[in-house]
Amino acid sequence: MGELLKVDKMKTEFQTEKGTVTSVDEVSFDLNEGETICLVGESGCGKSVTSLSIMHLLDRNGSISEGSILFEDKDLANASEAAMRKIRGNEISMIFQEPMTSLNPVLTIGDQLTEGIRLHMHYSKKKARAYSIDMLKKVGIPRAESIIDEYPHKLSGGMRQRVMIAMALSCKPKLLIADEPTTALDVTIQAQILKLMKKLREESNTAIILITHDLGVVAEMADKVAVMYAGQVVEETDVFTLFDNPKHPYTLGLMRSIPHITNPDDMRLESIQGSVPSVHNMPKGCRFYDRCPHAMQRCLEEKPQLKPIEDKQSHSIRCFLYEKEEQDYENKKKAKEVNS
Amino acid sequence: MPPLEQETPLLQVKNLKKYYPIKKGIISKTVGHVKAVDDVSFDIYPGETMGLVGESGCGKSTTGRSLVRLEDPTAGQVIFQGKDLASISHREMRKLRTDLQIIFQDPYSSLNPRKRIGDLLAEPLIAHKLATRSEADQKVNEILEIVGLSKQYKNRYPHEFSGGQRQRIGIARALMLHPKLIICDEPVSALDVSIQAQVLNLLKDLQKELHLTYVFIAHGLGAVKYISDRITVMYLGKVMELATTKEIFEHPKHPYTEILLNAYPIPNPHMRGRDQIVVDGDVPSPANPPKGCVFHTRCPFAKDICREKIPVLSGKDHLVACHFPLESVNV
């Protein structure tokens, strides 16, 4: 498994009437081939902006101002629009949250599906159509031969999301970005779509960046997880470590505040007080400061960095509480280097 | 809190139906009906929380709205304090609304953006002529404190608040008239995960303090389990199963309930790869529901009789509408 994507200290800014707003700050993570990383967080935490930055789909007033996005050997942060057109839909493709609005209502399913196939794979019209029908069958659309000539409004939400998946996977991308692909769907349909994504992932070895706020979906799908808060990654580790041994106060709060059907009957939910700080007025130090039960004077003034604490599982945390562990890890690493 | 046998229900829903006509052509001829709610019956006891769950289009919101007469039911009765809410005049209904309140899903669109919070909250008191301006003002302060907002917020407009705060305002408004029953129509679905717990806990605390009765409508089973005493599971306008929360989660009898519980992703990666029944297909259109049991098109256990005969909701404490209810052992 080679490394496919490496996002390093990416910063995305938007120019607004009220001045420059930093939406994503120092976001770093990496992804190997065939691996699935989940970006978890609440609305406004920058998870969608992160994915749009990778795809260069930001609005005109947004831009990546610092950091790099290495995809294979190319740096996407500085890639030209022409270069991006070759990558988008071909090597990296995307599924959006709203299957209702992300398909063009005046074009048939077939028109929309074949567009990318013809452009990137240089298939003839006839071949592209046959291939599209195959793709629709693969994602579990019944009567694919006739559905291909239908318009999107004829399909249900779940079916539209399947069409989106077929479209995203048709050019055999190396990386698929799925932005809340099941949030707008009912639970039984969500289960269908997750099952389908798992099956396709096994068949094609596509790496996935899955954006969600549902920890259930994370547990079901992820290999690695990056928890985001107010535009920063606050904790990153593999999925088992995250659920067995969450560390960052925000992650802990998130896990305890979600009502779940497996919770014991009389368990009272612990809520995280307050709400997410506004982008116009980010705290100077730790961004979780005013909601954190462990906040110290230091957190108000200094910015914590995302640092690894454990050797084996690569578990990184952005919090001063774990400074000792971080220090230990660094010392160990240094000692190892000296020894070798 | 399971209802006691001798206790009289606060509200009784009897064979409630709500059909919407489908009109076509230039003379708008009615060509069919969307059966949003089709023969729904249940009782609500004082002090309990009744959860209404189901997927989109199952009629749970329409049922909730019919209880406060925001929809005029096509047939059936809603009996509250000896009166049938489905057939009384609007004037009489208006009086009863002091006892029946509703909290809406979207805290962004359910507050008038041009009114200050203080005026928004005082409005029900003034409209029902229950208080003078200054009394109302006093009351607003009280209620704001109860829902955990500062009274200084009175002079602000809705856009100055976050989603969670707006939902608190929505709750405050419902509380202004000291209602007996509050319909909560997906009150946390539009909120962020870390805020949902705040609102759920607030609703729970208020219920204890003010002896409220809730009808809690939601599609998120986690929230419903957390807050409900009993749960009604709906599918395509019909009640599939009705039992205490414990029974529903531990011994579901209807295959649909079982599938719904099973479809829910569990936040524990060690549980991956458990046996999951994933049903195929979509919810059929309520304009043209399947014959017999409405769930038979997706039910893995459907037999011939399910395609022909509509199962009756039956049972003593644990009601289920299925020809072949599941035994208490899990499938």
Report on the structure:
The complex is a heterodimer of chains A (340) and B (331). Chain A has 340 residues and is an alpha/beta fold. Helix content of chain A is 36%, strand content 24%. Chain A contains 12 helices and 12 strands. An 8-stranded mixed β-sheet of chain A has the order 6-7-8-3-9-10-12-11, with helices on both faces. In chain A, strands 2-1-4-5 form a 4-stranded antiparallel β-sheet. In chain A, strand 1 and strand 2 (19-32) form a beta hairpin. The longest helix of chain A is centred in the middle third of the chain and has 18 residues, at 187-204. The two termini of chain A are 26 Å apart. Chain B has a 7-stranded mixed β-sheet, with helices on both faces. Chain B has a 4-stranded antiparallel β-sheet with strand order 2-1-4-5. The longest helix of chain B is centred in the middle third of the chain and has 18 residues, at 193-210. Chain B has 10 helices and 11 strands. Helices cover 30% and strands 22% of the residues of chain B. In chain B, helix 4 packs across helix 5. Chain B has helices at residues 60-67, 90-96, 117-127, 133-146, 163-175, 193-210, 221-227, 245-250, 255-263, 304-308, and strands spanning 11-24, 29-44, 49-53, 75-80, 83-84, 100-103, 181-185, 213-218, 230-235, 238-244, 319-320. With 331 residues, chain B is an alpha/beta fold. Chain B folds into 2 domains: 11-99 and 177-320, 3-Layer(aba) Sandwich (Rossmann fold); 111-175, no CATH class. The chains are: A alpha/beta (340), B alpha/beta (331). Chains A and B meet through helix 7, helix 8, helix 9 and helix 10 of A and helix 6, helix 7, helix 8 and helix 9 of B.
